[in-house]
Amino acid sequence: MTSTASDPDCLFCRIVAGTVPADVVHESATTVAFRDISPGAPTHVLLVPRDHHADAASLAAAEPARVAELVAAAGEVARQEGLERGYRLVWNTGPDAGQTVHHVHLHLLGGRGLGWPPG
């Protein structure tokens, strides 16, 4: 899917627009970060570009600099959240990977040990 400024049917586009409430922890001209409503770790923040892209590969193809901006924003949020001991960044792409909202989003997870393999 190519980029569109926004998709009126997209939950994350509505959060970016402010029409759906979210616990926003960081904003820039190009990104928004908000707490996940179903956290997988004590700190679980989703970082999204303001423009709609279906997944990480679509974003990288259309706007590669935006990928770097999301990762940099994740670093800022991690510092803000006190994740000095470490954190995990996860992109889910497609339903088999668990992507349920098809607006690219980067998961920032931390606040407990996240060793590999999980469990």
Automatic annotation (TrEMBL):
PROSITE patterns registered for this protein in UniProt: HIT_1, HIT_2
InterPro entries cross-referenced by the UniProt entry: Histidine_triad_CS, Histidine_triad_HIT, HIT-like, HIT-like_sf
Active site, per annotation: H105
Pfam annotation, one family: HIT
GO function term, MF aspect, one: catalytic activity
Domain HIT: start-end pairs: 11-119
Motif (Histidine triad motif): 103-107
Alphabetical list of Gene3D superfamilies matching this protein: HIT-like
Entry-linked PANTHER family: HISTIDINE TRIAD HIT PROTEIN (PTHR23089)
Protein name: Histidine triad (HIT) family protein
